[in-house]
UniProtKB/TrEMBL annotation:
Domain of life: Bacteria
GO biological process, one term: methylation
Family annotation (SMART domains): DHDPS
Active site residues per record: 142 (proton donor/acceptor), 170 (schiff-base intermediate with substrate)
A GO CC term assigned to this protein in UniProt: cytosol
Keyword Repeat in record: no
Cell cycle found in the keyword field: no
Organism this protein belongs to: Parabacteroides johnsonii
Example GO molecular function: N-acetylneuraminate lyase activity
Matches recorded under CDD domains: DHDPS-like
Keywords: Lyase, Methyltransferase, S-adenosyl-L-methionine, Transferase
Protein name per UniProt: Dihydrodipicolinate synthase family protein
Length: 311
């Protein structure tokens, strides 16, 4: 697979969710079936071992098997793929990168060391070592809102000066904050900026480049069609985005705000609601899963709000 660049890293990327049984063990046969469906949706790319892929729960054998499975299937189908080598421990992140770089992903995703906040100097020390070991494989920095060290657009460019192979960032856009997007347009060069999936239309039209999409968890086919619509009919795409926000605000966000479920519990729950893959309901220990009893109600109401995602 050819390395990605900041200009080719664009669009709707689907996430690989772990297929698990009731005890939280990974079922690789069902996960392989899931990858086949994701490939059939013709996404801009597929990535593994993000938050929704529960990278922090995997032992190293599980990490390698998951990475190999994705690489084998995507390479055969000529679908770009990225492997998340993230871990809270920088040593484990480095070991994961060394273990899978032979799979030649288009890029690897990393987080900054996450037990104690790093300084910018320490972030550079970490990323320079990762760049050296990656040996030509580009790096994407995943900096979610719950990270210990939150970076600004100015910080991204500072890192880019020291880490030439850094091609992209995966970040929160402040809920479509106009001032944030103004900084992107004015300050950010040589980096592909990826934002939350439910903001994809307004985000791309404001200066972002794509999303590692939570909406693809609901329906990867509809998510890709929406991205293509952004290019061909921005007004329809923006109208659909408003209804996607209504769906999220009414039917998904309350699980986080009121019931204190995790974001990745919602990603898995949306896959059950979308009914496109048999991945199971169970997050890995110790995180709570949203009970399946809520699926039918959310599916029925979702069909009325965003029927495009329930065809």
């Amino acid at each position: 697979m050819h390395p990605l660049t900041h200009t080719t890293l664009v669009g709707n990327w689907a996430t690989l969710l772990l297929a698990t049984n009731k005890s939280g063990e990974i079922d690789y046969k069902r996960m392989g079936d899931e990858i086949d469906i994701l490939i059939a949706s013709s996404p801009c790319g597929i990535y593994s071992n993000g938050t929704a892929g529960e990278f922090y729960t995997q032992n190293e054998d599980e990490f390698i098997k998951t990475s190999e499975l994705l690489a084998e299937k995507c390479s055969a189908a000529s679908i770009p793929f990225q492997i998340g080598v993230s871990h809270m421990s920088p040593q484990i992140s480095l070991n994961r990168l060394q273990a899978v770089k032979y799979l030649t992903p288009g890029a690897v995703q990393v987080i900054l060391p996450d037990w104690f906040p790093v300084t910018m100097e320490e972030a550079i020390i970490f990323l320079q070592r990762m760049e050296e070991v990656a040996d030509g494989i580009p790096i994407v920095l995943y900096n979610p809102p719950h990270a210990k060290k939150i970076l600004s657009p100015h910080d991204w460019m500072y890192l880019k000066k020291h880490i030439p192979s850094l091609i992209g960032v995966k970040v929160f856009d402040g809920n479509r904050n106009p001032e944030w997007y103004k900084q992107i347009r004015e300050k950010v060069q040589g980096l592909s900026v990826f934002i939350p999936g439910h903001n994809l239309a307004s985000g791309i039209l404001s200066g972002a480049h794509g999303a590692y999409s939570n909406i693809a968890c609901l329906n990867p086919f509809a998510a890709q069609k929406w991205y293509e619509q952004i290019i061909t009919n921005k007004d329809m795409a923006l109208e659909l985005e408003e209804r996607i926000h209504l769906f999220m605000d009414k039917l998904i966000t309350p699980f986080i705000v009121k019931e204190h479920f995790s974001n990745h519990a919602c990603d898995r729950f949306m896959a059950l609601v979308g009914k496109w893959a048999d991945i199971g309901n169970h997050l890995r220990w110790p995180y709570r899963s949203i009970p399946e009893e809520y699926v039918i109600n959310v599916r029925e109401k979702g069909c009325h709000i965003i029927p495009e995602f329930f065809k």
